[in-house]
Q: What sequence folds into this?
């Protein structure tokens, strides 16, 4: 039972790490580690005869060491979503404003 709890924690840790990598960018992580994108991508997946990916092994070790499962950054996620929605609203407002302009050069066709 203890192993099942640690594996569940490891899955949550791995999911958190992968989501942070995707949010911040794999290329930036690769530059920070001194690797290329392909090497970072290989960290995420088991290759060859490996049973686990390096990322999964790291998360299992962190869970075994007693790291608490990280809470997802809902506040940061919500603020990013709000900013994106505001930007979309601005773009839609601009499009609507240009679509609603009426000029005297428009033609009327009666059937």
A:
């Amino acid at each position: 039972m203890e192993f099942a709890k640690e594996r569940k924690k490891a899955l949550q840790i791995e999911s958190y790490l992968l989501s942070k990598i995707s949010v911040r960018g794999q290329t930036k992580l690769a530059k920070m580690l001194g690797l290329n994108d392909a090497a970072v991508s290989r960290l995420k997946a088991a290759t060859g005869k490996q049973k686990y990916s390096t990322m999964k092994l790291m998360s299992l070790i962190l869970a075994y060491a007693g790291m608490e499962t990280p809470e997802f950054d809902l506040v940061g996620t919500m603020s990013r979503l709000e900013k994106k929605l505001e930007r979309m609203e601005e773009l839609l407002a601009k499009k609507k404003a240009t679509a609603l302009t009426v000029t005297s050069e428009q033609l009327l066709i009666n059937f």
Notes: The CA atoms of residues 35 and 100 lie 52 Å apart.
